[in-house]
Write a structure and sequence with these properties.
Elements: E1 36-37, E2 53-54, H1 69-80, E3 84-88, E4 97-99, E5 104-106, E6 110-114, E7 118-124, H2 132-154, E8 160-166, H3 176-182
Parallel strand pairs: 1-2, 7-8
Antiparallel strand pairs: 3-6, 4-5, 6-7
Length: 189
């Protein structure tokens, strides 16, 4: 062990392709369940992850599943906000963002496009935000956004930003712009 050493790897510049296709989701639901409109109230809220939602007008897919009520409420905010042009919940294979010494893949909750930028958004419980796992994912996402911004802005595109929003901050009467300004992690790094 006296000759053993460990160096933390740095993040490599990701390959940013200007026209990557939007990957499809592989969704499942109980056969007795109908597809639910995203504005419908689901009770109990613990049943939300088992439902498939539809009715979106600005999203890149027609059907989505949400892991929590917060994510469902955030989709309502995105649909209602006039500043939001498009949004999506990326499929598991959409991005190649790695963390934990490049051994695990990170999948953000949302990607949102407005007139002034593209935002990679994660919603997390307040108690989880300072955990090592969330901070490592955040660092990897900020690094990805930095490289994506370098590519897109040099090709007349929009800058990318990473936003980490605590669950308690997501209220359906808020605007996306307010949340993005308040919880933009890429500004602090």
């Amino acid at each position: 062990m006296e000759h053993f050493y460990f160096e933390a790897p740095s993040f490599e510049k990701p390959i940013v392709r200007p026209f990557t296709r939007i990957e499809e989701h592989n969704l499942s639901k109980y056969s007795k369940d109908a597809i639910t409109h995203y504005r419908e109230t689901v009770t109990p809220t613990s049943a939300i992850p088992t439902k498939v939602f539809s009715g979106f007008l600005k999203s890149c897919h027609t059907l989505y599943k949400f892991d929590s009520k917060t994510e469902k409420d955030f989709a309502v905010i995105l649909e209602d906000d006039k500043q939001v042009l498009k949004w999506m919940r990326p499929a598991a294979s959409q991005f190649h963002i790695y963390w934990d010494h490049n051994s695990r893949r990170y999948q953000p909750d949302f990607v949102v496009e407005t007139a002034d930028g593209i935002y990679m958004v994660e919603t997390k419980k307040e108690g989880d935000i300072e955990t090592t796992e969330v901070q490592e994912k955040s660092q990897a996402a900020v690094e990805y956004c930095t490289h994506a911004t370098a590519y897109t802005t040099s090709n007349d595109g929009k800058p990318w930003k990473y936003v980490l929003i605590p669950h308690g901050a997501v209220q359906v009467n808020m605007s996306f712009g307010y949340l993005a300004r308040g919880y933009d992690v890429s500004r602090t790094n």
